[in-house]
């Protein structure tokens, strides 16, 4: 088992009724060599013929991300220097137990606008960290993880994905079908279908900003879908996210018509301005097995279908099935009541007097979207941002 795999497995601690998150996943899981990719000559002139030892120096990088990953050995980090990387085909990750990261402090755009079909990033390996990139203009899925396990997708800006119809359907921003996956501190928006489409065991989605499923031609789509077809979601959580502007459907859907959704927590999220209810549960499908599901301390605001959890068996929010706990959720008729710094500009940082402050359930995240320690007060804030305490008030960065 790799060091990354051990850390991810340790990030979810189960008990009989809930999913609780440990708060110490380290950003230093990879202690091997640094391999430099520098197509644009930020630190040095690149050469594809360099070997592993030479490419460890920023002044002697290789040119392509593929070459950097080919050179990387177990535990190595491939650092991609700043600039635009125009791509006409998918980037395949086929080597396990490596990190692929944008160089700290430099903007790296993986621009797939030269592609007419295909995904952006295709995972085909386990134990991979993907961090710090802008990934945009992908015809199909921006990040696709088919049967890859022990993954971290962190601090990326992922947008304009899946706007090409394939098999009569538009595609997702992030799709994952593996186990032990952490998706955190990303901004994900403007997708043809779901922003995240996830199945597996031990899935953690936290501290993300998610908005605008475009849903061309009026097709339905959700911010996050947990479960699909015959694929289960177990021992997993969606916590401290903001999900907004699903133009035809809900922020979150639980759907596994021939599978199991069990030991799942949905807590501390802001779910607002969606076309239907904030959370939609398909529980009238007799072959679906629901285990304990907790929906706690979320904020529901200005959702057109009603600010409540909708269950399809009763076609209402009025009766909560026995395997569900729905408690501590706050509802608001207008999103402006949440007192964000600038709602019109999608600046979702909560200001003083916001009902999000110290209203969350503790234990799910030690930091926020920006890396600010949680909690700053007696309890964590709801949503992806933890407002910094200055004196006795909350302030911005």
Structure, described:
The protein is mainly β. It has one domain: Pectate Lyase C-like, CATH 2.160.20. Helices cover 4% and strands 36% of the residues. The chain is built from two helices and 38 strands. The strands form six sheets. Strands 3, 4, 7, 10, 13, 16, 19, 20, 23, 26, 29, 30 and 33 form a 13-stranded parallel sheet that branches. Strand 3, helix 2 and strand 4 form a beta-alpha-beta unit. The longest helix has 7 residues. The N terminus and C terminus are likely disordered.
Instruction: Compute the separation of the termini in Å.
Output: 39 Å
Residue share in helix = under 10%
| CATH architectural type | 3 Solenoid
Q: Which CATH class is shown?
A: Mainly Beta
CATH topology: Pectate Lyase C-like
The average pLDDT value, as a whole number, equals 90
From the helix content, strand content and strand pairing, which structural class follows?
Answer: mainly beta
Give the C-alpha Rg: 21 Å
Shape: globular
- The DSSP helix count reads 2
Number of E-type strands? 38
Give a short account of the largest sheet.
13 strands, parallel
How big a fraction of the residues is strand?
A: 35-45%
Number of domains: 1
Q: Which blocks of ≥5 consecutive residues have pLDDT under 50?
A: 1-28, 391-397
């Amino acid at each position: 088992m790799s060091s990354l795999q051990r850390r991810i497995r340790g990030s979810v601690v189960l008990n009989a009724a809930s999913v609780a998150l440990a708060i110490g996943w380290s950003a230093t899981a990879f202690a091997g060599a640094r391999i430099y990719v520098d197509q644009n000559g930020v630190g040095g002139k690149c050469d594809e013929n360099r070997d592993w030892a030479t490419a460890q120096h920023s002044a002697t990088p290789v040119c392509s991300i593929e070459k950097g990953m080919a050179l990387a050995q177990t535990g190595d980090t491939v650092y991609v220097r700043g600039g635009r990387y125009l791509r006409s085909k998918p980037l395949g990750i086929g080597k396990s137990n490596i990190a692929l990261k944008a160089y700290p402090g430099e903007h790296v755009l993986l621009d797939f606008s030269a592609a007419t079909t295909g995904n952006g990033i295709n995972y085909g390996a386990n134990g991979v960290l993907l961090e710090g990139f802008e990934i945009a203009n992908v015809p199909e899925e921006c990040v696709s993880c088919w049967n890859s396990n022990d993954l971290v997708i962190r601090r990326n800006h992922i947008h304009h994905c899946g706007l090409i119809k394939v098999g009569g359907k538009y595609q997702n921003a992030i799709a994952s079908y593996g186990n032990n996956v952490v998706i955190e501190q990303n901004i994900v928006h403007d997708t043809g279908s779901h922003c995240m489409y996830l199945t597996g065991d031990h899935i953690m989605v936290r501290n993300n900003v998610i908005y605008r499923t475009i849903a061309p031609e009026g097709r339905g789509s959700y911010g996050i879908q947990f479960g699909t077809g015959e694929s289960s979601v177990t021992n997993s959580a969606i916590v401290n996210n903001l999900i907004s502007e699903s133009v035809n459907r809900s922020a979150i859907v639980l759907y596994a018509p021939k599978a199991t959704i069990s030991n799942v927590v949905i807590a501390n999220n802001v779910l607002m301005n969606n076309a239907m209810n904030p959370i939609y549960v398909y529980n009238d499908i007799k072959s679906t097995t629901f285990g304990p599901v907790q929906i706690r301390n979320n904020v529901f605001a200005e959702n057109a279908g009603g600010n409540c959890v909708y269950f399809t068996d009763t076609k209402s929010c009025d009766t909560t099935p026995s395997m569900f706990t729905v408690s501590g959720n706050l509802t608001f008729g207008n999103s402006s009541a949440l007192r964000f710094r600038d709602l019109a500009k999608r600046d979702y940082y909560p200001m003083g007097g916001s009902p999000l402050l110290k209203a969350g359930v503790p234990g799910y995240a030690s930091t926020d979207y920006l890396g600010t320690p949680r909690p700053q007060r007696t309890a964590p804030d709801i949503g992806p941002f933890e407002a910094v305490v200055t004196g006795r008030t909350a302030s911005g960065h």
